Every structure is written in C-alpha cells, then in structure tokens.
Amino acid sequence: MTEAELYSLYKGVYVPMHLHPPESLRYCEEFTFRPEDILIATYPKSGTTWLQEVVPLMLSEGDLTPVLTVPNWDRVPWLDEHRAILLNLEQRASPRVFATHFHHHMMNQSYFKIKPRVLYVLRNPKDVFTSSYHYYGMASYLVNPGTQDEFMEKFLDGNVMFGSWFDHVKGWINAEEQESILFIFYEEMIADLKGSVEKIAKFLGKSLSPDVTEKIADHCVFKNMKQNKMSNFSLVPEEYMDQKKSEFLRKGIAGDWKNLFTEAQEQRFDAAYKEKMKDVTFKFMWD
Ligand code: A3P
Prior knowledge:
- By secondary structure, the protein is of the alpha/beta class.
- It is about 40% helix and about 10% strand.
- It has a single domain (about 5-275), classed as 3-Layer(aba) Sandwich (Rossmann fold), CATH 3.40.50.300.
- A hairpin with a 2-residue loop joins strand 1 and strand 2.
- Helix 3 runs antiparallel to helix 12 (about 210-220) and helix 11 packs across helix 12.
- The structure holds adenosine-3'-5'-diphosphate (A3P).
C-alpha cells in the first residue's frame, strides 16, 4: 500500500491513519496539560519504549508492578493515538506520563501555555534509519520500505511517518521553553544507564536511593526489558506487527547502521546530514 492509502497529513506531517484517526487528533488538539505532566517526546525509533519503562519505574520508586502488569501503551499513552480517548486520562493522578511523536510545532495550545516537563530522546539518525528500515518491513500499518536505497531517499526527504527526522530534532532543540526540556541521548543510555536514570530523576525532582537506581537500571537493560511482554509488543497481533520478520526490541545497540549501510549509502547520508544540519550549533553525541 502507498503513503496516500496508509497516512494522512496532519499539520503538514504524515501520520499513520490506522493509529491516528481524525477523532484522536481532535482529542489531542483539545487536551489540557497539567504542570506536573511528563511528556516523552521522540522521533519514532529513538528510544520511546525504553523511556516508557524507565519513567514509570522512577515514579513507583523501583516497584516493578506497573511495568509488569500494564502494557506500555496504556502505562505511558501516546496522546495522539487512538487509545488515548479510551483511557480516562483526565482522571489520572499526577504526575501523568505521556508519549508523543509530534514535532514541536504540532503541540497544542495547552502545551505552550502550561509548558509541562519534556524528556526528548535523540538517537543517531543512521541508527534511527536502520531501526526504522526493519520496523517498516514488519509493521502492516506502515508503507513497505522497498529497497534500502529507496527507503533512504524517503527518510532523507521526510516522506515517512512523522516526517523528517531533521525537522523533528531542529524543532525541539530550538524550542523556546528550554528550561522545561531535558535532552537525552539514546547513546548515553547505552553507555551509562544508571547515570542516565540519575540524570532523568534529577530533572524530574525525584530523589532515588542508590539501590532503587540500580534496580531500575538493571530491569531496563535490553536483555531484561526484552523479556517483559508488557513492553516487547508481543501482545500486538501478528497481522499488525510480524515479529517473526523483525522483533520490536530488535538489537538495542548503538552503531548498528555500520552493519547495514554500503559505503555509497554512508556517503549519501552524510552529505544530506551535513547540508540539512549546517546551521545547527547543538552538540550531538554522534558528531
Ligand atoms: P533497534 O531496532 O535498533 O533495536 P522506539 O521505542 O522509539 O520505537 O525505539 C525502538 C528502538 O529502541 C529499537 O531499536 C529497540 O530495540 C530500542 N530499545 C528499546 N528498549 C531498549 C533498551 N532497553 N535498551 C536498548 N535499546 C532499546
């Protein structure tokens, strides 16, 4: 199926129709934030699921019950997806935790008024591409990626779900409300998960004992999290995600692009990156 058949354009950005029907986008547009809310914002395949595990564990002070009993999409719902309407989010106690793949400019009026806390996760775009390439090949609600070369052109042009990685990142790093946003790199979580948990906890004003921090980091390492059926998407029917083709929690490493890219693809990607990011002064971990 084609982009025209599977995606709709919302605020100029492709969103998968199946997950974001018009009534869900309307609900999200009218949603009222609270100052205590925590929003995990990401370009898809940057580490959303990882944060959907880490943050609830911080709030439960290391009690594993919420992550072992509630699927990640209800535990930390995507505000813009179809389930949000069903979850009675208005009745949830603070601090509520949500996820979104929206670009900064797609956020609603309440967001800009209330300025809730945001955890924005960044990942090397070559690894985002690599993870996406496998994911688009197994998820039926997305357009089949075609060849790597074809998918690379679409990715670089932003003709994929949630549009351009470059615009997404530039929008959030240039947000005016910098004091309410914590930028976290997927790569720093890989290098030092315990340190990342401490950094996130500090930003959220949560003091965790060394034992609890250790417990959270231990549960959230890839091999342990992969076993959690509330987080590994094994509850999703195969007709939507065929994990026999590629698992959702696939490799969980930094630098897997090196196993996928040809030399020509690396050069093509680097040239596009250089051009599109030429005015950006933000320091990325992969530069
Ligand atoms: P890979 O496909 O490279 O393995 P998102 O949740 O934003 O869709 O991102 C999915 C990517 O994050 C996948 O990358 C997935 O394996 C990785 N991921 C999820 N949990 C992880 C963890 N605990 N440790 C490392 N990577 C993780």
